């Protein structure tokens, strides 16, 4: 694919998700600007992309030429406004803090062109609040990717009451160009994926804490019994216990449902820095 519906994409945030998003957009043929607040962060983001592609080369799934072509489509910067000026699509992948995301989009709505689509990668926050006060809300949408972005087939598109059908149609087309299967959900707490996934993960933690079974056996029950590619506890490790705790607290507040109340075991592990794969220990040792 060398011709996409969005020729120039700005990805804000060069962490695990942002780097993955930048990679798939570049693989689809877009020119990508990957931005973060420091040179160190953007350099690490580019290394993530390079390392992921190199693994593909080592496994014979990607050629060295394809790797170099994708990397050649990605540039990095610490200049947020500069990254977005002239972009056809801006995808935000910054930390899950409502004030941060909203402030970012308020700032950028005066910088980008009137036709530029503004997208948030939030996994659970209200898009109406993320885009509050942003001009041109018909072009605002949620694009919730899944980790690891280059491998996961799902892209959850979240529409607000203001999102136009033209925006939904265009982003759905782009999802296909990225090799993703899109679902469209309305703006509601946790959307479809986080609401179901987090609830399952929290119950698995409660089961572990009460001694129902080991982490390995709880996960094996869902993998072998229900066909899940990964058990809920291992998935929580991969996502990050701190990330899922924040989502759980948000959903508890928004939905007033006891199923989303975070178990004390989870809070204790987060307090001890046992956040999962990124710290080397969670419910598993990594």
Verbal overview:
This protein has twelve helices and eight strands. It is α/β, with parallel strands linked by helices. The radius of gyration is 19 Å and the shape is globular. Helix 1 crosses helix 2 (39-58) and helix 8 (193-209) crosses helix 10 (232-239). The protein has an eight-stranded mixed sheet with strand order 3-2-1-4-5-6-7-8. The protein has two domains: 8-186, NAD(P)-binding Rossmann-like Domain (Rossmann fold, 3-Layer(aba) Sandwich); 196-279, N-(1-d-carboxylethyl)-l-norvaline Dehydrogenase, domain 2 (Orthogonal Bundle), CATH 1.10.1040.10. Helix content is 47%, strand content 14%. The mean pLDDT is 95. The chain has helices at residues 16-27, 39-58, 64-72, 80-84, 98-108, 127-130, 165-177, 193-209, 215-226, 232-239, 241-255, 264-271, and strands spanning 8-12, 31-35, 74-77, 89-92, 117-120, 140-144, 154-159, 181-186. Helix 5 links the parallel strand 4 (89-92) and strand 5.
């Amino acid at each position: 694919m060398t011709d996409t519906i969005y020729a120039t994409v700005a990805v804000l945030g060069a962490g695990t998700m942002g780097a993955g998003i930048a990679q798939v957009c570049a693989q689809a043929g877009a020119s990508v600007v990957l931005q973060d607040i420091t040179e160190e962060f953007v350099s690490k983001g580019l290394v993530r992309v390079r390392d992921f592609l190199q693994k593909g080369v080592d496994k014979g799934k990607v050629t060295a030429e394809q790797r170099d072509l994708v990397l050649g489509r990605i540039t990095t910067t610490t200049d947020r406004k500069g990254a977005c000026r002239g972009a056809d699509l801006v995808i935000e992948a910054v930390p899950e803090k409502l004030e941060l995301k909203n402030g970012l989009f308020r700032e950028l709505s005066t910088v980008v062109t009137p036709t530029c689509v503004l997208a948030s990668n939030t996994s659970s926050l209200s898009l109406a609040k993320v885009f509050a006060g942003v001009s041109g809300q018909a072009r605002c949408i949620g694009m919730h990717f899944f980790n690891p972005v280059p491998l996961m087939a799902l892209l959850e598109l979240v529409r607000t009451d203001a999102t136009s059908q033209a925006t939904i149609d265009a982003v759905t087309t782009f999802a296909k160009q990225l090799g993703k299967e899109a679902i469209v959900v309305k703006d509601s707490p946790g959307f479809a994926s986080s609401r179901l996934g987090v609830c399952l993960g929290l119950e698995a933690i409660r089961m572990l804490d009460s001694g129902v079974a080991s982490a390995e056996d709880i996960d094996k029950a869902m993998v072998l019994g229900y066909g899940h590619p990964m058990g809920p506890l291992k998935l929580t490790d991969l996502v990050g216990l701190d990330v899922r705790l924040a989502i759980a607290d948000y959903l508890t507040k928004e939905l007033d449902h006891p199923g989303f109340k975070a178990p004390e075991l989870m809070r204790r592990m987060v307090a001890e820095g046992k956040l999962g794969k990124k710290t080397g220990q969670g419910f598993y040792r990594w």
